[in-house]
Amino acid sequence: MTKRQVSARDVAELAGVSRTAVSRAFTPGASVSPETRQKIETAAETLGYQVNHLARGLITARTGLVALICAELNTPHRSALLAALSDRLQAAGKVGLLINTDRSDDSVARALRQAIAYRTDAAIVLSGMPGSSLAETCLRNGMRLVLINRDEERPGSLLIRVDDADAGRQAFAALTAAGCRRLALVNSLAGTASLEDRARGFSTAAAEAGVEIVETAVGQTSYQTGLDLGTRLLTRPAPPDGIFCTTDLLACGVMDAARTRLRLDVPGDVSVIGFDDIPQAGWESYALTTFRQPIDEIADAAVASLDTETDGTPQRVVLPTRLIWRASIRR
Question: At residue 298, does pLDDT exceed 80?
Fold first, then answer.
């Protein structure tokens, strides 16, 4: 037999107050006398009463639910960003609803439809890209849409980007300043806007300086890809002495290919720069020079936007990265 859930009416009867008084007591900012609040809280604790926010959301049209839509949850950078977003949402009195997807746009579209069905107030998209028509559906349903490191704007959305192209240019400048003359770029075939902009910034800076570089891109954005590409690059007849990797996972693989497989010195034989500043980058075994993603600033901007009104005009925030100098590059 299923036990009946304790209701606000039960609390009101035990406390000897009206049902409306109970509602005000659990509504932030609502007016209720200290004596009445104390009686209600005591009755609620006695009965084990919890506010049903979903039921309240049906009345107010605000559930406090925010969908977090992303893929590759096990990667260090993605885990750190999700943790920061979850912390900010909880501090703002909201609840994150995690929807795991692959990187395809179709998967993101299915996730967004789920979010609409569960009456989420907003969706923060970290992977893939929803179509314009689906973004308009979100807007019509009062759902705020935040796109992180995506490549296109959508109606009513906030697009938060990192200046990846500038980081690529800085990587080229840092390697050439370190005396590297044979440069290489290591990337995956993920094709995300962030990875492509980092690669484009690096190759454009090289072209402007009249420097030829070796560009490589295969497989997933993983340690194994970096290990394989590092082995391939560093066994060439004229191996690179400076490598920019579009993520730290790729860079860690490249460094292990150099040191463990080929017995090369980093940075004596080859300098390496990564991107993300994942925890492993700071480990003494890597001491990787890398660009730090502004994770806290991304999370702050995303959550701060959730309660703002929008007229349907897309908005954009571009945040800088910071080069963290460690021991994987000659200085």
Answer: yes
